Amino acid sequence: METFRDVINSDGLVLVDFYATWCGPCKMMHPVLEQLKQQLGDRIRIIKMDVDRQQAVAQLYQVQSVPTLMLFRSGNQLWRQSGAMPLNQLSQIVQQYL
Question: What is the CATH number of domain 4-89?
């Protein structure tokens, strides 16, 4: 089974969405992330991490508010931001790292 560390250590660009099921802004991000994946296809991998179920990972990355989005490549954190954002803004940020 692939671990979180395996995923973020891959050569490709990985967007991690730290979220909670009870979080309204997190629910707003779901269709945005789906649209981003449709736009970029295999050029990005998007994974969701439930902070209530994956508390150790959330603590390791000091996630204190949700949603928190992070971009990784080869284990390196390239970018991080908390809060919901529109597709065009997220897409512009991700494009810088492709």
Answer: 3.40.30.10
